[in-house]
Amino acid sequence: MFESAELGHKIDKEIYKKAVPELRAWLLDAQYELKEQGKIPVIVLVSGQDGAGKGETINVLYEWMDPRFISTLAFSAPTDEERQRPVMWRYWRALPPKGRIGVFAGSWYSGPIHDRIDGNMTKAGLDARVDQINRFEQMLVNEGALILKFWFHLTKDGQKRRLKALEKDPRTAWRVTKWNWDRLKTYDKLQDVVGHVLRMTNTPWAPWIIIEGEDDRYRSLTTGKILLDAIRQRLAGTSKQTTPVAPPVPVNLDGRDVLSELDLACTIAKKDYENQLAKWQGRLSELVRDPRFKQKSLICVFEGADAAGKGGAVRRITAALDARDYQIVPIAAPTEEERAQPYMWRFWRHIPRNGRVTIFDRSWYGRVLVERVEGFCAEADWLRAYSEINDFEHELADAGAIVVKFWLQIGKDEQLKRFKEREKIEFKRFKITDEDWRNREKWDAYHSAICDMVDRTSTGNAPWTLVEANDKNYARVKILRTVCERLEAAFKSKDKTPD
Amino acid sequence: MFESAELGHKIDKEIYKKAVPELRAWLLDAQYELKEQGKIPVIVLVSGQDGAGKGETINVLYEWMDPRFISTLAFSAPTDEERQRPVMWRYWRALPPKGRIGVFAGSWYSGPIHDRIDGNMTKAGLDARVDQINRFEQMLVNEGALILKFWFHLTKDGQKRRLKALEKDPRTAWRVTKWNWDRLKTYDKLQDVVGHVLRMTNTPWAPWIIIEGEDDRYRSLTTGKILLDAIRQRLAGTSKQTTPVAPPVPVNLDGRDVLSELDLACTIAKKDYENQLAKWQGRLSELVRDPRFKQKSLICVFEGADAAGKGGAVRRITAALDARDYQIVPIAAPTEEERAQPYMWRFWRHIPRNGRVTIFDRSWYGRVLVERVEGFCAEADWLRAYSEINDFEHELADAGAIVVKFWLQIGKDEQLKRFKEREKIEFKRFKITDEDWRNREKWDAYHSAICDMVDRTSTGNAPWTLVEANDKNYARVKILRTVCERLEAAFKSKDKTPD
C-alpha cells in the first residue's frame, strides 16, 4: 500500500510558491461554501508515522483556511471521564457539526494500532475493532459526512532523517524524545500492523489517502489539493453520498509514480543470464519438493502490458516444475458458466490444494485494469473490487497459499518494436491483434489504473513485484528469484496465522 | 431477536390445505420467471436448531417447486480436498448460477457457531469470521444475488417436544441421536452464540428471517410465502439491488405477534402493590449503592404508546435514587445543535459514567417508530438504524453499562379512556395534544413497527421488556423488578467482556 509513498516525492520551492496562493483562495472559497450550505460535516484524520509531518500539516491547513470554522481534536491517553464510558464516546463528543471541518490528530485508529504493537491486543481483537470502526465510519457517511483519512508515510531511512532534522533545529528539538527513537526500532512491526489496519479499513466510503511525508512542500500541497477536490466534489453532488465516495486520488503532483520510477534500461548479460536461470530454476525445483511445501501452495499471478513477455516468463517457471504439480490458467473472456456466477468465482475454482502450484496468466486484476479502462463494468463495481480482491488474497494467505504477483512493464517504444516483430514472424502473428493496437492507444489510462492497483492491492500478504521487462532475460531472472525468495520466507515464518 | 418465534405459532390444517395449492402455483411461476430471466441467483440458507424442521422444510420446497432448478448443498465436516484450501472454497464451489435456487443445508455459519460453542474459537475470532461473512454476502448481493437466510427457532421446551416426537415416529426415529440430546443440554450456550452471530450478520443487504419451528404447517407456509414474496420483489425490480434488500418480513401468518400475546388484563391489588413497590424500591436503592455498581452504569429506556404511563413509571424508579446519581433525558424534537450532528449523537452525549444512571424518556428508537411511521426519514435510513442501534447498545454493554429497555403497551380502549380523562383534568391537559389523537389513527402502523423493533433489537446484551400497562400499578412493579433483576444478574456475571 505504501509503494507510491516511497519514491522520494519532492516539490520545487518555486513551483510551491506559485501554487500556494491559488490553492489558499480556493480552499477558503470551498470552506465558506461548506459553511453556507451547512449540510456536510468534514472529518479529516491526520495520522502517520512519528516525524512524518502530522503537526506541520495541521498548521498549514490552519494557515490556509479560516481557523474559526476548523476544530482540531487531539487525543492521547483517555481521561478519567472517558475511561468510564465506551471507547468511542470521546470521538462522538468531538465530531464537527455540519458545515465545519474537524481535524483529528490521533483518532479511533491510534488506540488499536498501538495496543496491537505493544502486544496488548490479539490479532482477532484488532480485527473486531477494525470492523467496529468500519461500521462507525459507514454510519457517519450515511449521515452525510465527508471523511478524509490521511496517512503520512516515511521509509525507515526517511524517518531517521526526519527525526535527526527535527532534533537539530532548536525550534523543533523538543518534539523528538527517546520515545520517538525507540519507536523507530519497531518500524517494521508498525508497518506490519498499519498495513493490515489500513487495508481492512480502506473502504469505498472512506478510503485511505497515503502521502509521503518527507518533503514538507510535497506533503502540504498534496494534502491541500486532495482536501480541496474532495470538498468541491461533495459540494457539487446533488445529494448525500451513499456508495463509493472516492475514486482513487492522484498523489503524484511531482509527476512521479511507481511505474515512472522503474529503470527499464536494466539488462543482464547472456552468460550471466544462463547461469542465473539455471541457479534459480534449480532452487525452485528444490523448494517445491521441500516437505514444508506440503503445508503450503503457490499462486503466481502474471499481469503486464501486451507483449511484455508474460508467456516466456511463465515457461521459465514451469520448466522447473513437475507437470503433475502445477496448472496454468489463462484468463480470457469468461465462459457462459462463469458469466452466471459472481466475478471472483472463476478464480476460486482454480485455487490449488496444498503442495500444488497455480499460475494465472492474467487474473482477477482484469476488473481494475481492462474492465475499468474499457468501461466494461460500472465504476462502483471496479471500486469495490479492490477490497474484494484484498479479501480474497487474504483468505488465500490465511489458508497457507503463497501469493506472488508480477506486473511486467515495458516501454512504449519497446512495445511497438515487439508488435512489429510479431507481425513479421509467421508463428507469432496469432499473438498480435487489432485489440492490441487499440489497447496501446489507452496507454495513459492503463498507466493510472496500474498505479492505483499497486497502491490499493499490494499488501503484506500479497505484495506486487514490478518487473522491468524491456530485457526479457532480466525480467525472467527477477521473477524466478522473487518466487524462490517468497517460498523461502514462507518456510521460515513460523506463525502461519498469528493470533 | 427470537421473541416473535416463541409465541407458539400454529396454522390450522384447513387453512393450510386451502393456502398450499395457490402458493405452489405461484412459486412455480416465480421459479420459471427466474430461470427465464437468468439474472438472479437465489441463495437460501436453511439453518436453525436441531429438530426445528430444516430437513422437512427443504423437502417441502422440493415438493412445491421444480426440483430440476433447485440444488441442495449439504455441508458437514470438510473433506480432504476442502481442508487444504481456504474455508470459503467449498461454498464458492456450491454457489447456484444465475436463474437457479441453491438451498444450503448448513452454511458458512455452521462452522464458526459450533467452533465457538465447543470452545475452539475465541469471541474475537468469531467476530472476525462474522466480518468476513458480512463482506462475502455483501459481495454476492453486489453481484446480483438474492440471499434469504432462514433460522428456525425452538424454545427449550419446544425442542424437547420436537425431539421426543421425532423419536417416537418410527419413520424419523433414526434422525434423533444421543448427540442431539446432548446438544439440548447446551441450549442456552447455543442461544447465546447464535443470538450474537445473528445480530452481527443481520445486515440490510442480507437480513435474517427467524421462524418458529415447532408447527410444521406454520413453518412451511411462512417459509414458502417469504420466499415467494422475495423472488417476486426482485423480479419486479428494474435493476440489481444494492442498498437495503429487505424491509422486515411479517412472520405472523396466524395473526399472532409479541404485542397480541400480551395479557393486558394483568392487574395487582392495591395492598399488594404497596408492598411490592416498597420492596423493589428498597432493593434498587441498595443495588445502586453496591460497590460493584462502581464498575457499571445503568441506562433505562422508556418507550410506549401515548398515555401508557411512562412518566409515572420513571418517577417510581427515581424515587429510589439519589438525585446526584441519575439524570432523566426526555427526548423530543432535536435542538439545532443536535440536528447538525449524526442521529445518534444526541444520545451519545448523555451516556452516564460508571456508578451513574441515565433514564431516557423516549430514545433512539424514535427512528424506527415515529420517524418510520410518519415518514420523517427515508426507508433506507430507518432500515440501517436497526444495526446502528444494536452496535450502539453493544458498545454500551461492552463498557459495562446495563441497558434495560421497556415498551409500555396499553389497549386502544384504555388509551381512549386516558385521553378523555386528561382532557377533563386541568393540570393534565398539557399532556394531551392534537398530535396524540393523530398518532392514535396510525395504531396499526405503529403496531408493526413495534413488533419489528422488538424482533430486530432485542439482544442478549440489551433485551426488550414488554410491559402490560393497562394497570399502571402492575406495570410499575414489573418495571422496578426488572431493573433490579438486571442489576443483580450483571453483578453476578463474572466476565464483563468474555474473550
Can you give a write-up of this model?
2 copies of one chain form a homodimer. Chain A is of the alpha/beta class. Chain A folds into 2 domains: 3-236, Rossmann fold (3-Layer(aba) Sandwich); 270-492, P-loop containing nucleotide triphosphate hydrolases (Rossmann fold, 3-Layer(aba) Sandwich), CATH 3.40.50. Chain A is 50% helix and 12% strand. Chain A has a 5-stranded parallel β-sheet with strand order 2-3-1-4-5, with helices on both faces. The longest helix of chain A is centred in the first third of the chain and has 25 residues, at 13-37. The two termini of chain A are 23 Å apart. Residues 238-245 and 495-499 of chain A have low confidence and may be disordered.
Helix content of chain A: 40-55%
| C-alpha-based Rg of chain A, rounded | 24 Å
Note the run of SSEs of chain A as H and E: HEHEHHEHHEHHHEHHEHEHHEHHEHHHEH
CATH topology of the largest domain in chain A: Rossmann fold
**Which geometry of chain A do the CA atoms define?**
globular
How many β-strand runs of chain A? Answer: 10
By DSSP (H or I, 4+ residues per run), the number of helices of chain A equals: 20
Largest interface between protein chains, with number of residues from each side: A-B, 57 and 59 residues
| Biggest sheet descriptor of chain A | 5 strands, parallel
Approximate strand percentage of chain A: 5-15%
User: What is the chains' assembly state?
Assistant: homodimer
Number of self-contained structural domains of chain A: 2
Protein name (chains A, B): Polyphosphate:AMP phosphotransferase
GO molecular function (chains A, B): polyphosphate:AMP phosphotransferase activity
Enzyme class (chains A, B): transferase
Keywords (chains A, B): Transferase
